[in-house]
Automatic annotation (TrEMBL):
This is Serine-threonine/tyrosine-protein kinase, catalytic domain. Residues 76-361 form the Protein kinase domain. Residues 1-49, 361-411 are annotated as: Disordered. One of its GO terms (molecular function) is protein serine/threonine kinase activity.
Amino acid sequence: MKCFGFFKDNSKTNKEKAAPSPPKTPPRSTTSSSNQVSKSSSSLASPRGISDLYKEKENSLRVFPLSELRTATNNFHRLLKIGEGGFGSVYKGSIQPANGQGDPIIVAIKRLNKNGYQGHKQWHAEVQFLGVVNHPNLVKLLGYCSVDGERGIQRLLVYEFMPNKSLEDHLFGKALPSLPWKTRLQIMLGAAQGLAYLHEGLEVQVIYRDFKASNVLLDEDFKPKLSDFGLAREGPTGDRTHVSTAVVGTYGYAAPEYVESGRLNVKIDTWSFGVVLYEILTGRRSLDRNRPAEEQKLLDWVKKYPADGKRFGMIIDPPLRNQCPLDAARKIARLADSCLNKNPKDRPTMSQIIEGIREAIEDSEGQNPEASGSNLVDSNRPFNQTGVTRSPRRVTAHQLPRPTANVNGVS
């Protein structure tokens, strides 16, 4: 899936000097207008930003010499490459513990492309955001490397290694077995908990801005962890409802109001989450040019099979049929519809989404596939609505507009 609309910035990379640590972010402006109320002992302190919080924790990250990371990856050997994205390649490597004692640690090392200021900016965002956050459902950053030399800039990040690859690999890859229904729900529950922490659990609100299946990594127990914070952004503060930015992200996951206006708040993450809910339900990508024209855009296709309709079961991923309780599947579809509400204010919070997924998990755990087959999705019999509770009219997924001039690179 292609990324689009990267920042346009005229800053010159030759002004950047050798940096053994992330460049310091300029402090927030404290200039006040002439009529600003003077401070008093009762006034509230200004909220701290990510750069302020990072200063308290930056010493917890290791600063790796480039030579050590070359050794760890056998000079970035192609056979050790485990992933590649818009911002660089990822290699599996082995490093020594910080104290030099004990067994080597298996890690993932991202080496950013040498694309000047933009690559540096994404690297800097990852270091600062991942240097601050701490949650079981967010990938852990162990350290970084920053070198400016005659051969250009080198920006690297060292993460904990996630052996079960990504949710995308399991949903759409042919080399891995299909994920069971309950596992898919547990993964989405963990992902929602990670987003809830970003939205609600920090001193500063964080908008992830790039939620998609490929950024949900899985550990040895298939526990999900969100990765790739290069596009993360601080949310609005005070009485502001949004922040305005250049439009960046992945086509097929970006909320329509953000693509149209560049206005950013946490509800764009909610939209993206709704897209991925339909991906785990259908086993289809949000955008797939290899399918018939009427089925290429997932959100357009699922509108033809409403959650309470008789034909709803036809959209269920075939490997899930005969193991997926129909009531639970309908519940996930309704939850996805609420996330995809055209009006951002009407979309649920991540805390509400967590509760919705937990209810679907409870419904699934209450079903015995062998004893309760009459309530399972089955492609070999007609679908009915027996026992389905009534719900509000399904909110149809809003069709994303075609990219405009400020969303470059989207096919």
